[in-house]
Amino acid sequence: MPAALQAPVPSQTFEIRRFDAPVGAEIVGLDISRPINDSDFARIHRAHLDHHVLVFRDQRVQPNDQVAFSRRFGPLEIHVLHQFQLKGHPEILIVSNIRGENGEPIGLGDAGAYWHSDISYKSEPSLGSLLHAQELPSEGGDTLFADQHLAWEALSPQLQARVLPLTAEHSYLAKYEELRAKNPWRPKLSQEQIDQVKPAVQPVVRTHPETGRKALFVSEHFTTRIVGLPQAESDALLAELFAHSVKPDFVYRHRWQPHDLVFWDNRSLMHLAAGTPDHLRRKLYRTTIKGDRPR
Ligand code: OGA
Ligand code: MN
User: Fold this and answer.
1) Which ligand is nearest to the CA of 272?
2) Strands (DSSP E) along 171-259, which ranges?
3) What predicted TM-score, i.e. pTM, was given to this entire model?
4) Residue pLDDT, tens place only, 99-137
5) How confident is the model at residue 81 (pLDDT cuts 50, 70, 90)?
6) What are the residue numbers of the active site?
7) 286 lines ligand 1 (CB under 6 A)
8) Is the CB of 254 under 6 A from ligand 1?
9) Is residue 174 scored above 60 in pLDDT?
10) Which ligand 1 atom is at minimum distance from the Cα of 284?
């Protein structure tokens, strides 16, 4: 049928409700597995830029639906830990503390143990990531989000002027061996994997490509040093910025509900897995959207 004769996709009825928190909103009534027309998509896109993290409630959807919805925002990343891809869906990374029959981990168990922005260790980090709840623990397992626009705006003018021209190195390997020592199931990286994750140099302050707002862009997980500063000075400045960037005034704590799909903007936020007691099972599916080179 010629496109002009196809019935237009009807709008879905859904609400966008801001959280009583520094960032974030929930989307109630939308079904991401049903067709989403351009005007609905524009509402969602706008809400994502305004609130930085959106919680789509009650998404009883399949991996294919998550992948298709994620793709509307851009091409997807395939994570370097191929061991943890969902079978048949290489775009989905399993984030889980569950072990298989032989005691082997079924997914990345300690994703997000330190504050970070996804894939900041690549020269083109992620635009945003989506996590879909599959299995939730009865306690713990929260995810925290810190608004890095607010963090930037709250810096003193002196500190703003000092950090604005700086760049910093981000490395996937920075905490890898430390995490592997705590979580021996973390695979030893092959040389090929190591070659894929060469450190990247990023601006300490980035400008959001869609909103033009500035954001702090350093993280405890991946940022190793400020380029051009002596190590001690770099360590002291990074420690100051890390502590500042995650103050409670900038943070939303997400308490997962069944079937939540959470979509955050890695250009605006850092996030942290608050931790799950070892004996409780937690499993989420992650899709990761590719982004631009930070400027
Ligand atoms: C991630 C991540 C946090 C969490 O998947 O990128 O950081 O709470 N997850 O699982
Ligand atoms: Mn993450």
Assistant:
1) 1
2) 200-203, 205-207, 214-216, 223-226, 251-254
3) 0.95
4) 999 888 899 987 889 999 999 999 999 999 999 999 999
5) confident
6) 116, 118, 271, 286
7) yes
8) no
9) yes
10) 10
- Quickly count: other Cβ atoms within 10 Å of residue 70's Cβ: 24
Q: How far apart are CA 256 and CA 258, in angstroms?
A: 7
Strands 25-28, 53-56: pairing is parallel
Sign of the C-alpha dihedral, residues 4, 7, 9, 10?
positive
Closest residue by Cα to atom 3, ligand 1, is 273
Query: Could you tell me the two tokens for 233?
Result: 């000075």
Ligand 1 pocket, mutate which of 143, 254, 285 (most atoms under 8 A from CB): 143
> Is the separation of the CB atoms in 286 and 154 below 8 Å?
no
- Which of these, 281, 250, 254, lies nearest to 268 by C-alpha position? 250
Give every strand in the sheet of 167-170, ordered side by side: 200-203, 167-170, 223-226
Task: Indicate if ligand 1 lies below 6 Å from the C-beta of 130.
Answer: no
Compute the mean pLDDT over every residue in the chain, rounded to the nearest whole number. Answer: 95
Is 1's pLDDT higher than 60?
no
Ligand in closest contact with the CA of 287 = 1
Structure tokens at 201: 């140099």
Cα separation, 168 vs 150, in Å, equals 20
Return the ligand number nearest the Cα of 113: 1
Ligand 1 pocket check for 271: Cβ under 6 Å? yes
- Please report the DSSP string for 13-35 in residue order: --EEEE-SSSS-EEEES--TTS-
Mean pLDDT of the region 131-159: 98
Whether 129 is in the pocket of ligand 1, judged by its Cβ within 6 Å, is yes
Residue 228, pLDDT > 70, answer yes
